[in-house]
Design brief:
Layout lengths: L3 E2 L12 E12 L3 E12 L2 H20 L8 E15 L2 E17 L5 H10 L4 E8 L3 H26 L2 E3 L5 E10 L1 E3 L18 E15 L2
Antiparallel strand pairs: 1-8, 2-10, 3-5, 3-6, 4-5, 6-9, 7-10, 8-10
Length: about 220
């Protein structure tokens, strides 16, 4: 980000005494959306049967998830690949078979469905579950609120410093630079082979959105 400089009344950038501070603003918010990656991994000696079995299993998983009220447009393929697998014995490469992987990303706005989606998918053939993530739809708007808090925090720090050194502070900063930002989604890493899950608990917790700025304030010393 580029710094913003406020000129003085004469159109010149103020020189002289400066107070430099770091301002931080943070919000803790409950998430309002979630996503999970899940799917089917099929390993067989022959490729065509592996493809066919994988396709049938994924179709069954998708149909089961849709019965929970998840619309089709929130279920999308995140990864599809076919791989040749080998064993190695005494330095020799031995063909073992093929592995077909079809992973889906399922998005939800009703957070209570997360555990049900995982359980339902596993019960209907999914053998891979990963990256359960809770997030915010309007994270940019919330970040602007955190940014305003960071600027207020910087102003309060500058006022405190000016008061302590018995100086008169210009409350308008001469420079403001956005130093950093973070939106921390909550992740749950489930085991790759998820068979055996039952009533999987998923607690959304709180998301933290943080903004950091550096600011400079001009001040005058009192005689």
């Amino acid at each position: 980000m580029y710094p913003y400089h406020v000129p003085n009344r004469n159109g010149l950038h103020p020189k002289g005494h400066l107070i430099k501070v770091i301002g931080e603003g943070e919000l803790s918010l409950p998430p309002d959306s979630a996503s999970v990656n899940l799917g089917v991994i099929t390993e067989m000696k022959d490729l065509i049967p592996a493809q066919q079995q994988n396709s049938a299993a994924v179709t069954k998983v998708i149909n089961a998830i849709k019965t929970l009220g998840i619309p089709q447009n929130l279920i999308q393929t995140s990864d599809y690949r076919m791989e040749t697998e080998y064993d190695y014995e005494q330095g020799k490469q031995l063909f073992r078979g093929y592995k077909v992987t079809h992973l889906l990303q399922v998005k939800m706005e009703e957070l209570s469905l997360v555990g049900k989606v995982v359980d339902t998918a596993v019960q209907n053939g999914a053998n891979f579950v990963s990256n359960v993530q809770f997030s915010l739809k309007n994270k940019d708007g919330y970040y602007l609120q955190a940014l305003a808090l960071a600027l207020n925090n910087a102003s309060e720090k500058a006022k405190t410093i000016a008061t302590t050194i018995h100086a008169t502070l210009n409350p308008t900063p001469t420079s403001v630079v956005e130093s950093g930002s973070s939106v921390q989604p909550i992740h749950y890493q489930a085991d790759a082979l998820a068979k055996g899950f039952s009533s999987t608990p998923m607690e959304p917790g709180q998301l933290k959105i943080k903004a950091v700025i550096s600011a400079e304030f001009h001040y005058q010393t009192t005689v």
